[in-house]
């Protein structure tokens, strides 16, 4: 067990005592002042009713551009994943296997496809390598962000599907005057580097130009960003990787016996000699255990710990007033992403047919190697294809999103605001895998020239040209949304005027993914995969009411109905209350229902293979990784959820600049779309449960060659916790200060009957019971200083090892210098104390979970902004 040192204990006790946090939250006192000054009505994330007061029944956290710059964030992924409300596992720049270069957000750990991402209040197109079910955050450059609003409450009644866990609304810069050029860069300065050098650099340059004129404004800009890769073997804390698939190859689980020159030995009849890979001659006529390190392959030198990428973005937004009552607003964003991942050379695995037709059971290999075949007359040959080089995954992805809205005012009755909008999104992808191996050609090559494969020597270039190929895949997503909304004053009550919003929306979404022809035919050494293609459309109608019930009590209500052409209708509602106990204290609560419609890939996804770690109860498989065919279901129903929040907002009139919020939250998802527990299905089938055999495609004799795992509506997810936020702005010691603090206490997280609270694991990430961010800013004239602390509490390994993983604290500092009125320079250090990632027993990369912990060590960054 890891022992906490005195510093860690002091940090944790201090955090608990002060109840501090590090996201920038909405300041309740400022909101009240704004309302008192009768400022114009604005839209708040989580509602379509125009209002003056930023504080609503639902909790919203705001992260502004100043905080983004001070923390040295390079991507939207970093901005969001460092927030305490995030949990589980979100793929991103440290995900080398399976993400395809994407970055996602996972609010509350409930899944990336259950957090809705908006751009300027409207949906962002799903994006990635094709038929994706969530937004790739890489499509949104940091340079254009004005602020990020995180609604930490279910919002399906307002926004429809996918908002079960909450909403992330990214607001872009507008009303900008002049030209701004920013250049920034970063690199590691870590003692964890094996050579003591620098790596993992980021560099970015952005240009933004804007002009305000009598009837509107126009902003245009562009950014370029490049991130360098970091190899797993470049960090001291990483132990050598060990794979059982080795360069020399194994046949039937045996390895070739080599002479002093590295050539395979032969017997008296000239047949190659193979031996067990677990024992070897001891030199005295007996045997001894082999050295496992001699029979395993270290894949770390060919594996990225941080993946390289390049991004090019162009964006523009503007507004134009046709008259005092009619305005046009539009925004366009285009991003090209070129990213790569790298993994060890292909672990090729083929089944060689070695028996004659007359004898197909327990026969001896016809090549005379003395290795017995299985009951299908086959012998398994495995070889790490180091001669072909590492597998290099490459993506070239274009994403376009454009939105246009015409809004105005109707001078009818009490007067109404209206808006009609259209949003279009398109994502196109080409993805490649270099140095892939064609299993069909490999088998034939072995039959034609077994000595070349079995002699332990490198393969010739002619053989490599025959068995390797470049895998080419294509995919994409498309979205069309037409909507209209009207809002204003609904009616009068004794306590005031009720506001309302009502609207209709029609959305069309499609997606496709076309794997390489070799993969579709099942001829690759990677798992077979079918093409995916499909679409759906949904028509929606909704309404909201904000009703003052008394001078202190206000009710907020929403009702929405969505009708899909795939499964039918879904109706959701929200009911919230705010109670202003006095000028300093407001109580709030919300109860809501939500839903998530099945995505294109879940409805129309083609069969895809996945090699999973399973135990064969029949004992017939030779490997602990068994091929499972994952299948979709066009008859899936939507997920259903219920959420509840209750909290208090405190802004004492006697303490200027201070505000605090405390909120309890809970979510319960039923009929969750999930895959079954394959291991449980194997065990049940082996015990005689025929239904389990049928569902998973298992033959009566335990034949697992067609083992499958379908998507079904049988999942369940429950989670609850407490969020606490403090913000304090004050003057002292000759400067202006601001203190921000954000804490999330996870009380419970259960999924499909398993409790993950306070645990961490390779496939689902971390669910720390306590997470905290603290941020302190100070400014004296032309100099600004920022300190932040990110704390992740104790977790334990989930699964076979229940040992405590421990807690960790990351310290970051930065400084800003206003050189002139038009030039600003900043410098900072992330992970000041160069903390190493905590070891995780069943971690997914390098013995840890890079999606949870900092894995590249201390970073230094600097930038300069010039305004004209």
From TrEMBL:
GO terms for cellular component: cell outer membrane. InterPro entries: Beta-barrel_TonB, Beta-barrel_TonB_sf, Plug_dom, Plug_dom_sf, TonB-dep_rcpt-like, TonB_rcpt_CS. SUPFAM superfamilies: Porins. It is found in: Cell outer membrane. Residues 241-263 are annotated as: Disordered. Residues 54-167 form the TonB-dependent receptor plug domain. Its main location: membrane. Gene3D superfamilies: TonB-dependent receptor, beta-barrel domain, TonB-dependent receptor, plug domain. It holds the Pfam family Plug. Keywords: Cell outer membrane, Membrane, Receptor, Signal, TonB box, Transmembrane, Transmembrane beta strand, Transport. The keyword Transport applies. It is a multi-pass membrane protein. Residues 1-25 form the signal peptide. This is TonB-dependent receptor.
